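Good morning C.,

I know you're traveling, so I'll keep this short. The sequence:
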Amino acid sequence: MIPQKEAVLAICEFLGRHGYKKVQGLSINTIKNMFLHVLENSFFVLQLPGMKPKFYQQIRGGAMGSACTQVLADVYVKKWESKFVEQQKQQEQLYFRFRDDVFFTTTLPPQQIERNLTELNEKDHNIKITWES
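The C-alpha cells, ready to paste straight into the viewer:
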C-alpha cells in the first residue's frame, strides 16, 4: 500500500524533474493540495444484510479503482524501482511492470537475485517484491 503523503511528494518531484511549473494552468502546489484532498477525504460504506450502513474513512493508501490512486501508485513505484531498472538496462536485461506485476530477465544466479531483491525490498517498507523462477 502506497503511503499517501510520500506518493504525493513523488508526483511533485516527478513533475519538477520533467520541467513542469504548471499543468493545464494548475501550479504544482495546487496539484499537490488536490491530491492530498482526494486522499484525505476518501470514504466508503459497508452495509451488511440486516444492519445499518457503516461509513469508514480511508486513512492508508488510496481508494482502489480511483484514477487518482492509480497515478500516485505508478509514479511512486517508478521512483522506487528506478535504480533496479537502470541496473537491468546496463546488464541488457528486460524489465516490464504493469501496476504491481513485474517481469524481468537476468543471468544472475539465484543467490544473487535473492540478495538484489532483499536490498530492493529494504528501500521502502510499503512495497515488497517476491520472485518465482
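Safe travels,
E.
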